[in-house]
Amino acid sequence: MIEGLKIIDKLSPELLNEIEQSSIVKEVLKGTEIIREGQYLTSVPIVLTGLIKVFTTYNEKEFLLYYLKPSESCVLSFIISQKQEPSKISARVEEDTTVLLMPYNKVTDWLNKYPEFSVMYFNQFNFRYFDLIDTLNHVLFDKLDFRLFAYLKEKASVNNTTIITALHKDIALELGTSREVITRVLKKLESEKKIIQTSQGIKIIAM
Question: Taking the CA of residue 201 as centre, how many other CA atoms within 13 Å lie in the half-sphere pointing to its CB?
Fold first, then answer.
């Protein structure tokens, strides 16, 4: 068995064997962009270890859609590959990651052939749908200080740390604003004793 496949639970030995025979396991270094906007996709990823950020861009600004953690798949990449249209999303590796790349045509076959695979992907679609709705609600209805603090907490959670080392300009890029605004709002959060800014990064002190 490919190391890491054990995290894909509730799949039959027959299906796991087909996945092993048809897919590629790839080690990807931090900072690598594995999906680019405009690219035609031929495979669907499942993260075995590590972390991947899925985002879109507008006017040279990035907009975070969601993170892919171990045992999670990018359902948007499956939709894009099936439609054979250029990708409208990008994906970048946030830490050294092991990813399973499944051919999209095989994924289609497995969805029809194996009920447990259909259930797994339905759960992924369901999870991502509500994840995107939550992101949209934050953008439309929350003030920037709330959005920024929620962003920092999620960043800390997915990286299993309380220190966020992202630069102000990178945070601004993901939240669709300017570095100066992020710097000002971080000072506000610090005055509210929610964070501390240190030489190591931004430390969350109120979860």
Answer: 15
Residue 147 · residue 187 · CB < 8 Å = no
The 10s digit of each residue's pLDDT in 148-203 is 898 898 888 887 888 888 889 888 888 878 888 889 899 999 898 998 998 888 99
Residue type at 80?
I
CA torsion through residues 169, 175, 181, 186, sign: negative
**In angstroms, rounded to a whole number, what is the distance separating the alpha carbons of residues 33 and 61?**
16
**Angle formed at CA 96 by CA 118 and CA 173, multiple of 5 degrees:** 90
Integer Cα distance of 41 and 163 in angstroms: 35
List all residues 6 or more positions away from 131 whose beta carbon is below 8 Å from its beta carbon. 65, 66
d(CA 143, CA 41): 36
pLDDT tens-place string over residues 97-140: 999 999 989 998 998 999 988 888 888 888 888 777 877 776 66
